């Protein structure tokens, strides 16, 4: 008996093609691609140094994966991390690649943009500065401010040497006293002026004593 090895060759090729198609369909079914903007995180900054400036805050990522996984992404599931363990004072350029992106193993990173970041590191220092209440407006006619007391009157600030050295006083958010005829005693937030500094407390107590003008 002769066995026809090459019999029905067309049917066999078609069967292989269908098998490959089914494998591809099952494997990639539900695959999707999205673009996300993620903040840049830093780790392992040398002691005594911190970031003074950086030219970008976020990067744009193109990622792909199962649609259900992408739809369920939460904060922290995708992270862009720069290792500063070898950083020195001054300006340095770090390149950002797929190896800087921490994602679930089932997610593939397709594109990272931009691919570099420039940062400036400076010494970290702290000092204590006085706090001044920002009072706006005037009391009711016939009344005046007798005293303004801020507690605590001194606050510790910490940050880069460049920025902390410029600070001689911290002010509070505006405290409106227009038309009042009685004392005010309340907590008011501190203003850092958008600078990259930290304070040991976020608000102070401001007491404004009001008295009647004697004629």
Please describe what this structure looks like.
There is one protein chain. The protein is mainly β. The chain folds into two domains: 30-123, RNA Polymerase Alpha Subunit, Chain A, domain 2, CATH 2.170.120.30; 133-212, Beta Complex (RNA Polymerase Alpha Subunit, Chain A, domain 2), CATH 2.170.120. Helix content is 13%, strand content 50%. The strands form three sheets. Strands 2, 5, 8, 10, 11, 12, 14, 15 and 16 form a nine-stranded mixed β-sheet that branches. A five-stranded mixed β-sheet has the order 6-4-1-3-7. Strands 9-13 form a two-stranded parallel sheet. The chain starts with 8 loop residues before the first helix and ends with a strand.
CATH top level assignment of the largest domain: Mainly Beta
Please, what is the oligomeric state? single chain
Average pLDDT: 86
- How is the biggest beta sheet arranged? 9 strands, mixed
Tally of helical runs? 3
Shape: elongated
Task: Count the E strands.
Answer: 16
Fraction in beta strands: over 45%
Along the chain, the helix and strand elements come as HEEEHEEEEEEEEHEEEEE
In CATH, the topology of the largest domain is named RNA Polymerase Alpha Subunit, Chain A, domain 2
For the record, the CATH architecture of the largest domain stands as: Beta Complex
Number of domains: 2
- Cα separation of the termini: 132 Å
Q: What level of helicity do the residues show?
A: 10-25%
The gyration radius over C-alpha positions equals 31 Å
Given as residue ranges, the uncertain stretches (5+ residues, pLDDT < 50) are none
- Main structural class: mainly beta
